[in-house]
Design a protein that fits this description.
23% of the residues lie in helices and 26% in strands. The protein is α+β, with helices and mostly antiparallel strands. It has a domain of 89 residues: Beta-lactamase Inhibitory Protein, Chain:B, domain 1.
Amino acid sequence: MKYNKYTKHLCAVALATSLAACTPVVDYRGYVFEPSRLAQVENGTDRLEVIALLGVPSSQSAIDNRTIYYIYSRYETHTLFSPDEKERRIMAIEFDGNDKVTAINKYGLDDGIIVAYSDEETQTQGSTLSALRQILGNFGRFGSGGDL
C-alpha cells in the first residue's frame, strides 16, 4: 500500500492532539504557602506581624474577628468535565483579645464536611393565589394617583 508522504505526519499530529486532550488543566487558587514564612509564625506573634509575613488573609471569622484564614486549592479539569478539587489547604490562625496568636490550625480536603441539602420546600402561611386570582384581584384597586 502506498501512502502519501504527509500521511505519517498527519497520523502523528492526530495522535499527539488526542493525547494532549486527555491531559488535565490544572488551576491553582488562593494563597501560596511558603514554608519559610509559615515557620516564623508562632504563638504570641502579633496580628500585624502575621499579616506582614503572610499577606492579607483569604478570609476572617465573621463573628468575633479573632480568626484569620489562608486558603489554597488545586483543581483539575478533564476535557469536558467540571473542575474537580484535588487538594485543599487551610490554615486558621486564632488570636486572643490582645491580637496575639493563640493557635495555628491546619486543615485539608479530608477535614471538610459535606452538607446535604434538602429539596423540600417550606410551607408558607396563608393561602396561595393562582395567577388568575392575582390578576382579577387587582381590578378596582387603581386610584387616581394623586397620593404620590
